[in-house]
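Troubleshooting log. The previous structure file for this entry was overwritten by mistake, so regenerating from the original sequence record. Sequence copied from the archived sheet and checked twice against the printout by T.R.
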Amino acid sequence: METADVSALLVDVAARVVLPRWRRLASHEIFDKGHGDLVTVADREAERELGAALAAATPGALIVGEEAVAEGVTNLADLAGAGHAWLIDPVDGTGNFAHGSPDFAVMVAEVVGGATERAWIWQPVHERLYVAERGRGASRNGEPIPPRPRPGVPVGTVPGSRRARVAEHLRVVPSWRCCGMEYPALLEGERDFLVYRTVKPWDHLPGALLVSEVGGRVATLEGADYRAGVDGSLLVVAASAELWGRVASALG
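Regenerated output below.
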């Protein structure tokens, strides 16, 4: 599929399946997958529609959706070795979505031979579409996003027990609890670094390509650059390689 066609698909599915449920979900349309991880009817229906359209357009491609993996329908381990795959996060920030916050996103990444080649993040309420193509940069609503100067003390998010240690050196602020909001915020200069406990690919592959295309670095705390199949104790995202090193050092 052409990049513009995938963009149009995300916007269309969000408009028909996701937004009509925003702030209108009934209690029986929200489910707990465990440990407070929510899923809604909008997640499931949007994933089915996106997956069907992508599969029809690219016969033979592996379709990996967050909810299909959670339900045991798709094996996440197949992603890294697939010749061609589509990764779908139908509603990133489901907790925000279920509680009426506008801070959620629909995300898709195209993975070829384990490398992320294209990525999309659509924020339906904010009407911001972020797109990246490997080696061709990143854009917001069709306008290129250049690398940005980062004056002052770097600002970012850090989980749990590591927060106090990093706050001794850098400014730590609350998380949006939505990668589809936080990665774009780094592109826009609202955040300089992000640290995550979990490294699930549907959360991070789309944003990781966006960040790398504007000169940033996304890697595990152990130093492995992030891609399909990579795991680690923490994932560190930064607007530059130099800042990545500072954050990793502060994390200890």
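The helical segments are 3-18, 41-57, 66-70, 94-98, 163-167, 179-188, 201-213, 241-251. Archived copy saved in two places this time.
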